Amino acid sequence: MNVSGVGKLANLNTENKSAQKVLTDSFGSFLKDALSSVNQAQLEAEEVSVRVALKDPTVELHDLTIAAQKAAIALDITLAIKDRLIEGYKEIMRMQV
User: Fold this and answer.
1) Is 3 helix (H, G, I), strand (E, B) or coil?
2) pLDDT tens string 16-50
3) Domain span at 79
4) Exposure on the CB side of residue 93, measured as CA atoms within 13 A
5) d(CA 75, CA 39)
């Protein structure tokens, strides 16, 4: 019986878990960055809205419209992606193994 092969399998399993952790971390950081940018667009639209309400001469109405549309589009895309992810997850859970 060759026992040295077991050590190689243990190293392979450890490397595989390490690679999986890196993938999970990078996907998690990608999602965090994406949600952060959507939040930033919402905050910018709110800031422009306040500046227009305070009659800041450097901000015009079309700036508010553009900022609000950017925020709305970013939120719509985020919700569409969330819906597709949930749909995909449900489809995987319905699969028979």
Assistant:
1) coil
2) 666 666 666 788 888 899 999 999 999 999 999 99
3) 4-94
4) 6
5) 9
Dist. CA 80–CA 70, nearest whole Å: 15
Q: How many domains does the chain have?
A: 1
Structure tokens at 69: 């549309």
Please give the backbone phi and psi of residue 49, each rounded to the nearest 5 degrees, phi first.
Answer: -60, -45
Q: How far apart are CA 93 and CA 97, in angstroms?
A: 10
What is the rounded CA–CA span in Å between residue 72 and residue 45?
Answer: 9
Q: Could you tell me which residue, 23 or 83, shows the higher pLDDT?
A: 83
Give the global pTM. 0.68
CA distance 19 to 13: 10
How many Å apart are CA 81 and CA 10, to the nearest integer?
38
Cα–Cα distance for residue pair 33/86, rounded to 1 Å: 20
d(CA 64, CA 70): 10
